[in-house]
Amino acid sequence: MIPTNEEEIYKGIKQAIIQQQLRPNMQLVEEVLAESFGVSRTPVRNVLRRLAQEKLVTIIPYKGTFVSCLTVQEAKEVYEARKFLEAVTIRQACKRLTEEHVLQLKTIIEEEHEAHSHEDSFVSLRLSCDIHLKIAEIAGNSYNYRYLEELISLSYVIYAFYGPGRLFCGSEEHTEILHALKQRDESLAERLMLEHLNRIESLLNFNETLAAPLSLTEIFKGK
């Protein structure tokens, strides 16, 4: 289990990426982060490795660690792949859905709604991703699950770079998708999922220039 201080560092850095405080290609200097969090470099290094596994940061040997960056074309390709894959998985999930699965999805959606009501974009985004991965898990294809898991990690990077800086993945749409799953209506479930992903993609700011970022010390001051 990851020590509490590492978990706090992990959440702090990941949240700063998602909330666009840490910008793509920005270097994450271990010494500065360690000083900001009041810890040694070891837990910071462990956290950066974890974030690299999630593709949120890129570690370049002999150069350092940088916030990951995707081009507009790469971002569009991620969503194209997600739509193709999630259309398949939700149809499979319709066939395999159990009452236990319904309760699990309902619980996550309720937690997502609660996060929305508190305007907690970090938790809301995580729960939204959990819903999509849970549907893939229900579908029962381990290869599709792993592919989608990687695409969703890349979606965090896309949100950090191109996201509108506000909550934009509505729990109401996930509720509608759950209802279609419960009805085992494959066509409706697929249509709702694709509409959901298309709407999210349409809200990404592919032409917007971001303001100058803060320094690492300013971002994590008081952590």
From TrEMBL:
GO terms for molecular function: DNA binding; DNA-binding transcription factor activity. It holds the Pfam family FCD. Residues 3-70 form the HTH gntR-type domain. InterPro entries: GntR_C, TF_FadR/GntR_C, Tscrpt_reg_HTH_GntR, WH-like_DNA-bd_sf, WH_DNA-bd_sf. Keywords: DNA-binding, Transcription, Transcription regulation. Gene3D superfamilies: GntR ligand-binding domain-like, Winged helix-like DNA-binding domain superfamily/Winged helix DNA-binding domain. It comes from the Bacteria. PANTHER family: HTH-TYPE TRANSCRIPTIONAL REPRESSOR NANR, TRANSCRIPTIONAL REGULATOR, GNTR FAMILY. This is GntR family transcriptional regulator. It comes from Brevibacillus nitrificans.
